[in-house]
Amino acid sequence: MKRSNFLSLNLRDFFKGLVLAVITAVITFAYTALQEGTLFEVAALKKAGLVALAALLAYLIKNLFTNTQGEILTNESKK
Prior knowledge:
Elements: H1 11-36, H2 42-64
């Protein structure tokens, strides 16, 4: 699959965003568990989930405003 056009998303964008969200959730959960000295608390899971959701949304928004050449806030070049 190729990169998505400016102001559009494709399935690959969602997959990469989900991978980023999972990695972010794991790191956030591990950091919270180490800082608070507890494991598997609901508050830590909730915090990790919210941070993961924010990472997913940030990644999708970034890709929405990026063209196929990787330029942010630039429309497709006319060749």
